Structure formats: structure tokens, C-alpha cells
Amino acid sequence: MRSSARRSLRGFLIVALATVFVTPLLFMVLGSLRAPGLPPPDGFELVPQGFTWSNYRNVFAFVPLGTYLTNSLIVVAIAVPVTVLVASWAGFAIAVASPRARRRLIALSVVALMIPLSALWVPRFVLFKWLGLVDTLWPLIAPALMATTPFYVLLFALSYSRLPSTLFEAARLENLSPFGIWRKVAWPLSAPVALAVAVLAFGWHWANFIDPLLYLTSGDKQTVSVGLRALQTLEPTNHPILLAASVMVTAPPVIAFLAAQRSFFVKTLGVR
Q: Which domain holds residue 88?
């Protein structure tokens, strides 16, 4: 009976948490289908009287959202794999370092994680200006060369440090290089962490708002975060149009999360 009650409680908590996260998305989708000019739906008129699908088409009449989506997809298509790869390399280097060096590297990563991003805006802008990369997408991709954030490095370091040390010792006996040990031993066993970091990096780069404002001046090179802000400036009271654009901008990270979740269950639990 206790096990049955625990399963019921666990199921109730899962449903409750899912409801908390899904409800805003539901309001956003239903609000995007309301007639133009109407306010967002409240609890008493959640389902609109008629579905106005033209809101999605009208978004492109105000802003070139297709261009913004393409630019953001280019950024994440390059930045996410690079982030995962660099974070994995750095995390593996921390995991196989000597205890003293490992402590220093972890402390350095924590200190770097505590540095506010606003403190890096000016030096980064000066650097990219000197390199001639301002008004290109490369400043938005460049953080991936440093794993985007030290938090991802620490995730990989924790994952690799939990692997049995005998695996690495056996690989060294096979005369594998450090890169070979990472590629043949560590990397295949870190699939869940790699998926988690990929999803987090996707969301970080997709929602990045400050960097496009700092480095991009041409309208045809802006990303979706700035595009939504521009649409809000042009149509501040047309909530269905704004919500329709929000649905289109939110769809890619939601799809990426769902795909990664399915892959996570298949690889770790064998559930299909």
C-alpha cells in the first residue's frame, strides 16, 4: 500500500509540475489565435470564440521574422556543438588532472562563473571591433569557444569524475593518448550530460538579447530576441500578433527540449 501511495503521490507531483510549465505555453498559443487588437485571454475566456490563424501570417508584415529565425538558427547550429565539444574537453581535463590541479581548476571555474557578464561587455566589444567582427554573427558564436559558461564545464567534470578510474588506467595501458581516452572511453559514457548541455546551450544562445544589441547594427542580421523587441515597439497593443510571434520563437527550443528528452530516455533508460 505504501509503494502504491508513493507512486500516486509521485504521479500527482509530476502532473502538477507539468501543469505549471505548460499553462503559460497554453495561454500563449490560445492568445495568438484571438482576433487582432484583443487583450490576452484571462481565466474566463481562455478558448477564443474563433481561431484567427492569420495572426501568424501578419507577423511577417511587421518584421522580417523569417530572417531573424534564420540568423538565430545559424548561431545555434554552430555554437551548440562547439559548446558541447569544448565543455567536454575542459571537463575531461579537470577530471583527469592531479587532485591539486583539479581543485585549482574547479576554483578557477567557479570564480569565472561569478564574474558578471556586464563586466565583459566593453572588453569584448573592443576586441571584436579590433578584429573587424562587429555587425557579424561571429561575436554571438564566439562564447562557444570558451564553452559559453563555466557551468557546462563543471557539469562535464562532475560526470567524468564519477567514472571508475580503472577505465582510464586500462585505456592508458592500451597506449591511448589523452584525446583517445576521451574519444573512446569518456565521451561515449557522457551522452546524458552532453544532451543536457546541448539543450541548455541552445536556450542560452537562442534567448541571447544583449549580444545582438551590442554587436549587430544591420537589420538583416538581427536575431529573434531583438526581433520580438522590435515587434513589441511597432505593435505594443496588438497582443495576438505579439503572441503569435512568441509562439514561433518559442517553438524551436521547445522542440529541441522534447527531442533531447526522448533521446535521454532511450539512451539511459531504454524507454522508447
A: 63-234
